[in-house]
């Protein structure tokens, strides 16, 4: 996997409150830059492994694209991982929540599951740059949304 972006923020809320908010992906468009809309595709509970969503995301120079997102790992209140179908990026989002003396640290990371030589040479630098910009703004918005 290829790291696209990693950001950390400390939020003065319980790990369970943070987990409940971030694991409900219907909240994602409210705090993550570039996500236009997201809706559940199945009846599983938010945060449940196997939960699926349809995300509409802004892609530079392309416009909006629809991406199926699946929760692949979820351990309340510490770990939440999704994978998306957006080609050629094949995104994987990982959120870890760790207790600190000043609250809870949220570690947000996005990876690409595409390991092809051409992707790494041609697209990875551009995708990494765009995702890093979005991530910086987004973790700040997450903290503001949660009031911590």
Automatic annotation (TrEMBL):
Superkingdom assignment: Bacteria
Name of this chain's protein: Polyketide cyclase
InterPro entries noted in UniProt: Polyketide_cyclase/dehydratase (IPR019587), START-like_dom_sf (IPR023393)
Pfam families assigned to the protein according to its UniProt record, in alphabetical order: Polyketide_cyc2 (PF10604)
Cleaved signal peptide residues: none
């Amino acid at each position: 996997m290829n790291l696209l972006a990693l950001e950390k923020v400390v939020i003065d809320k319980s790990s369970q409150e943070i987990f409940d908010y971030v694991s409900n992906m219907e909240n994602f468009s409210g705090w993550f830059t570039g996500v236009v809309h997201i809706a559940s595709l199945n009846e599983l509970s938010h945060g449940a492994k196997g939960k699926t969503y349809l995300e509409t995301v802004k892609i530079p120079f392309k416009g909006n694209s629809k991406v199926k997102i699946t929760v692949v790992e979820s351990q309340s209140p510490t770990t939440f991982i999704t994978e998306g179908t957006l080609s050629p990026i094949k995104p994987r989002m990982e959120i870890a929540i760790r207790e600190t003396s000043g609250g809870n640290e949220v570690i947000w990371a996005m990876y690409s599951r595409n390991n092809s030589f051409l992707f790494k040479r041609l697209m990875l630098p551009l995708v990494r740059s765009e995702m890093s910009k979005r991530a910086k703004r987004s973790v700040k918005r997450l903290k503001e949304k949660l009031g911590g």
